[in-house]
# Entry
Amino acid sequence: MISTVLAIGIVASLFVGFNIGGSSTGIAWGPAVGAGLIRKTTAAAVMTFFVFLGGATVGQNVMDTLSGDIITIEISLAAGVAVLFFIGLGILIANVFGVPVPTSMTTVGAIAGLGLATGTLNYETIAWIISWWVVTPIIGFWIGATIGRYIYPELNRRYQIKKSDGALLALDRTTTLPKPVLGPNTTYRELVSTMIVMAVGCYMAFSAGASNVPNAVAPLVSSNALEPTPAILLATVAIGLGGFTIARRTMESVGGELSDIPLLAALIVMVTAASITTTLSWMGIPISLVMASVMTIVGLGWGRATRPITAREAIAGDTSDTEIAMGALTAEESGEKAPAIGEEETEDVLDASDLFNPRAVMKYVSMWIIGPSMSTLLAYGFFTVLPGVA
# Structure
């Protein structure tokens, strides 16, 4: 009986990890794949390796929080399988609505529901976690807004990343031992920028592993059905499978956000989101990489869009006399020096397509609230009706 329940738990864990791999690989490598800097298969392979590194190092702290700190009792194997089911259900619902999956929040919600039903919830820990859920999007937004308003235009003018036609590198066969050289149209600046893009993708993958590997297996580790090391390997395999399969489409679209902005802006978003997520994972806080990514995008777009007005007007919403360029990040820079804060932007920026879409933001934020709330309520109801499972 135990082996059958464990087999079901492993299948549920594989399903959760598979879906995590589909979404996380797109976020980490979508910009590089879209720019033609790396193939999808190569991106999935590199993603798998760095996910394992993130899960085996920083992810251990998150694993400890999920498996032992949220509730004061040991999760039984059957309860762990049920928790994984509710996590998978939360992922499915988010996918139906086309919203990036807040897996960490859904996981915490399901475990908290178990704690509420059994009277074993550690309220101090859950309050600490939720406080960071509130603070994280604010931090991401204001970092993005500050960069977008004061730094991004000059960065884009000086360091706009472009890819030349042809191969990045070639082999020089004129010597006895062939050696790699720059491609026919490759410049040293392009080579360096490509290396930076690759490094950022690896960093993002590491961050995804640190935050998401525990989500797929923590309930099984908490029940002592699996030891941490084989559990991390199981989650890595599942996430890797998702990266090699369903992530191929998400790497092309990246949810519709990162693919619509220049590569430089995408890198800023990725570095910011990965840094926030890795730091909080090191602290043992289960946090959504998607949350930090989306709110940094929103902040970057808002900061860039509100350059024509003063900071006081932007914060107060006093825009009656000035048109705000909502899609300013998608506009091509002319290479000229950007206008000073408070001055009108050029027409190509003002007429850019909409990036800072309040409806889209509300959709994301509402799912970040609905997803964990639903998993909490479903888990609470299940373990209240069937207390023997816990």
